[in-house]
Amino acid sequence: MLVTSLTQRLDYYKLTMAQFAHVYYPDVMVEYSLVNRTKSVNLLDWIDPEELQRELDHASTLRFDRDELKFMAERSLSDRKVFRADFIQSLRHLHLPEMQVVTVDGHVDVVVKEKWPVAIYCETIVLSVVNQMYFQALMDAGMIDAETLFWEGKFRLDRKIDKLIAAGIGRKIIEFGTRRALADLWLDFVDDHFNDRAPGVFLGTSNVRQAIDHGYLIFGTYAHEMDMVLAALADSDEEMLAAHERLLDQWWELYGYDLSIALSDTFGSKHFFATFGKERAAKWKGVRHDSGDAFEFGEMFITFCLSNGIDPKEKWIIFSDGLDVDMIIALNQRFAGRINIAFGWGTNLTCDIGFPTISLVMKAIAANGRKCVKLSDNLRKAIGPKAEIDHYVKVYGYDNRAEAVCVY
């Protein structure tokens, strides 16, 4: 079977978000659904739904082992443990929910519905399994050859590393590629090879298993589903508007400064900066960019800091949207020395083997039966029923019209 341990397919931020849900929203029922944003590829042409169901059923039988729990219990922040004892205890008894494979209108979907602190883990498991099965099917069909794939992938990886070293980028690259890695062995090779060749460039990983096995620094904060779920739970437009600020304040209460990287684009960065406020801006570490023009966003955040009397050189931007090596170098040239930056590099790092990738996401679509919505700074990434999206656009004063193809 493809999944042999839960941490093998687990991004660190699934744990930090799971604890958040465990502490503040333990009984909220959340439904997740698979979305293939690459319209030119029908997964049913390549993946047998019954085989996918068997893989996911097997993953549901897995449990965290003693070493994994020990690793989590030992994570520390500057003033507290990352994970509370009651949360670690809950992980000892964690049983993943059913991940149901269904066919809808000629397309494959995976649906998960369970209490939020339990359902939240399924996202990266489903995405990584589907992606790996897709590329295995391409190899089985003779469209790509495993040996050629390896050498082409290594050539591309080495070329990226060479460019980053030549650019003098510094230690700023975090591997964010769990969900769309070509395969587990390939992810292991990418991190190991990158770290061996350029320890002054490779900063760490978001993958829990990689951190356990190799001692890499591990990174992760939170994702769009946090804003999406809290807004869906609101009983009025006023509560919807307040939900984002409640998320920020509860997150700070739970984790403090060390994990205070705010995701800005769920309902548009315009709303984020209008409500972040001087007090939060002063104490939070920084922000993560995940949609829209990265250069415009960087300038926007620097301007926001300066207008609030904050030195941007004391803050961070984590860029994580559709990165490739040339964009990373260009962003570094623009912002290095003006603000602290790092790069959460995903698909183009861990699945660049000379064959087109597919853009898969698995998002929260409902919370306690209410539809979830994501707007984003790129309308191609918007999620939710049209009527709900239109309502959120009105409530959040969203006026962005930018669109870009979701390559990764």
Automatic annotation (TrEMBL):
Domain of life the protein comes from: Bacteria
GO biological process entries: NAD+ biosynthetic process via the salvage pathway
Protein EC: 6.3.4.21
Record key words, sorted: Ligase, Phosphoprotein, Pyridine nucleotide biosynthesis
Gene Ontology terms for molecular function: nicotinate phosphoribosyltransferase activity
The protein's enzyme class: ligase
Domain named Nicotinate phosphoribosyltransferase N-terminal: residues: 11-131
Pathway: Cofactor biosynthesis; NAD(+) biosynthesis; nicotinate D-ribonucleotide from nicotinate: step 1/1
Keyword presence, 4Fe-4S: no
A single Gene Ontology CC term: cytosol
Keyword Disulfide bond among UniProt keywords: no
Domain Nicotinate/nicotinamide phosphoribosyltransferase: 172-392
Family: Belongs to the NAPRTase family.
Protein name (Swiss-Prot/TrEMBL): nicotinate phosphoribosyltransferase
Source species: Candidatus Collierbacteria bacterium RIFOXYB1_FULL_49_13
